[in-house]
Each structure stands twice: as structure tokens, then as C-alpha cells.
Amino acid sequence: MNTENFKVSATEPKQLKRELGWFGSTIMGLGSVLGVGIFVSLGLATEVSGSAVIIALVLAGLVVACNSLNLTQLAVNHPVSGGVYEYGYKYLNPWLGFTAGWLFLLGKMAVAATAALSFAGYLLNTIGVTERGYLVPVAEAAILIMTLVVLAGIRTSKITTLVVLSVTIGSLLFLIVAGLIVFPENALANLAFPEIDGRNWIENQLQSIALLFVAYNGAARIALLSEEVVEPRKNIPKSVIITIVFTMILYVGLAIVSLGSIGPLAFSEAARVQAAPLEVVAESFGIPVAPIIVAIGAITAMLSILLSTVLSLSRLILAMGRRGDMPRFLTQLNSTGSTPYWAVISVGIAIALLVLIGNVKTTWAFGTFGALYRCFIVALATLRLSNEERLYPIGITWIALLSSVVLAFCLDWQVWLVGLGVIGIGIIWHLVAHQIYLAAGLSTTVSEK
């Protein structure tokens, strides 16, 4: 193997430049969570538990809050790129760290490809283009533009995310306010919780919480960017807490308006048949511009998901390259130390290739499997923190650990089969990659800081 590629990084900055304050990291967190989740998972969960999905939303938010606070503690004590991948390596063992990173990498690439196609679909529908042949080219153009934005640096990414996120939040707030103004007379009847039927009710709620878990999953992206956060001990906890609280309030408001307006049955059917339940809700208001405003919000939401995924996965690949789990040339930074350019380009190419395949939509349940697995790894790693390193009571860690196990067993066995198969493929890659580096006489470890 030619080792010249590995010599270049020695003359470049080894650590990314810290440029994100609490506001910037909060924007990146919100940009990664307000997207596919609210436009997909709310409808799926409503189909399972009806109007009681509002309870599931709150409980899912609390579970994710515990996991997010665990991530915060780890990110503060080990503020480097890589998130749960790095925490698994440092506090547990290489196998757990690698598999968590591997699941995150593959799962989020598929989500990004889906977001790109969804962006293209929403955009074409909004401008009245019915020819489906434009779908893939428009999706590829979106990937190219977002990749170029990330290549321009973290500041450009932050500004772009702020712009598209403002449109998304504005459209969702419009939906809430307009919905409350035109609330139908039968809204309270639509919001009435179904009768509690013991075991079935509990099983439905647990399944809904599992489906909604991914919809809150933004703190993981903040952890992946922790190497670029100024004063991480101060700013990371603030940005994570604001992200979770704001998201929970927004989601509950959307659920109340959506279910109160058209009822849980119509809402879940809109999610299953039309894949655009919030647009159906907006159409029920009788306000001509309402569906267009929601559609524009969906377009910008998909863009923010795409941008945040390219950004965060490039940092994950950077961390994996440092440890020899990915080719070392992916660790090269630009002259200002703000961008791992080869990592960014490789992520953009991988997502673009997934879009070309055609049907890249992975099941939401598989995404939930990966998120719950990462929650479990994060909780295990947090238990290894000393009392001096710990920021929050250890009970928070145990809640996240136990809830991740319980919710994981609410998933179908087919999901487990796929998830374990993907982990097995990753382990094979892990072994092969390290054997290649050892054969080339290259170290596959990095020193702990």
C-alpha cells in the first residue's frame, strides 16, 4: 500500500478549529432533528396508539432527554469528533465503539438519501411538475449543493442551516397557530384518549415511544461536532437542553393541532397513503396558502437534514479514519483546519450513489434499532465516568440504559435480524481494515487526550 497519503495529514492541523458557540451548536442540533422525524414518525405512531400518541411524545422526549444528557457528559469530558463511536472506544472497547459508529454511518446515509429524494418530490409537487424523471436529478443537485456548503466550512454550514431551519420552524409554527384559530367543534372529541386496555395499551405506547425516539435524535449530531464547539463544558449542555425542550414543545403542539383538526384515524391514514399528513391537516383549515406554506417547510426541513447529515457523518468518518477504521487520507483537513475535505466529499458521493439505486428508503424501525443501540452504548459509557466527571445524577443514566433495552424488545424480530446482520458486516470490515493497516506497518490507534 502506498503510504504517501498518510504523510500529508502530519503537516496539517490535527484537530478541527473550534468555531461553534451555544447558539451555533443549537442550530445544528435543531437542523438535524426537525426534518424526516416530524413529517414521518408522528403519523406512524398515531396509527399505533391513536390520540394517546401525545403521551408517547412526552415520554419519548423524556427518554431522549436522559440519553442526551448522557451524551452531554461524554462530549464535555471527551470533546472530539466522532460522538458515540469515540465514546465507545474510550470508555468501553473497540468493538462496541465501532459497531455504534458503523450503524450510525450506514443508517444516516440512507436517511440522507431518502431526505434528498423527499426534497425533490416535495419541490416538484409544489411547482407543479408531475414528470417523475426529474426526481433523481433534482435530488442529486441538492446533494451536490449541500456538500459544497459543508466544504465551505462550519460557519457557512451554520448560516445555511439557520436560514433553512427558520423557514421550517416558521411553517410549523404557522400550522400550530392557524390550527388553534380554526379548531373544529369536535376537536376535543378527536383528542379524547382511547380507553386503556391494560397490556395492549402499554404495548402500543411502548411501540409508539420507540417509533418517536428517532424523531428527537438531534443531540447525537451535537456530540459529533463537539470538537468544533467553543467552551464545550459550558456550551454543549446548554445547546442540548434547548434542542430537546424546544423540540418537545413544538411536537406536542403539532400533535394537538393535527389530531384535533382531522382526528387520529384520518391523520394516520394520511401518513400511510399520502406520506404527507401535515399537508392534509393544513388543507383541512380551509386557508388556500396553508398547504403551500407547509410544503415549503417540508422542503427546507429535508435540506437541513441533508446538510446536517453530510456535516456530522464527515466528522464521524474523520474519527474513524484516525483510528484506522476508514482509510487515513480521510483525516486530511484544509489549510484552516475547519473542514475534513476528503471525508465530506466521500459522504456526498456515498449518498449520491444511494440515490441512484432508486429505492433507498430503509424502514423507520431499523433507524430506531440503531438509535436504541447507540443509546445503550452511550449509557454504558456514561456509567464509566468518575464522580468528578459526572454532571448529572447517575439515575438519569440508568433510565436511559433500561429504557433502551425495553424499547428495543418492542421491535419486530425481522428488524433485529437486519440490524445484527449489518453489525456482522461491519465487524468483518473492521477486521479486514485493521489487517491491511498492520500489513502496511501503520498504526491503527490514536492517543487519548
For the structure shown, list the relevant keywords.
449 residues, mainly alpha, 0% strand, globular, disordered N terminus
Walk me through this protein's architecture.
With 449 residues, the protein is mostly helical. It is built from 18 helices and no strands. The two termini are 29 Å apart.
Helix-strand sequence: HHHHHHHHHHHHHHHHHH
Q: In terms of per-residue confidence, which ranges show pLDDT below 50 for 5 or more consecutive residues?
A: 1-13, 359-363
Rounded to an integer in angstroms, the radius of gyration calculated over CA atoms is 21 Å
Residue share in helix:
over 70%
Number of helices: 18
The total strand number stands at: 0
Brief summary of the model shown:
By secondary structure, this protein is mainly alpha-helical. The chain has 18 helices and no strands. It has helices at about 5-10, 20-35, 35-50, 55-75, 85-90, 95-125, 135-150, 155-180, 185-190, 200-215, 220-225, 230-275, 275-285, 290-320, 340-355, 365-385, 395-410, 415-440.
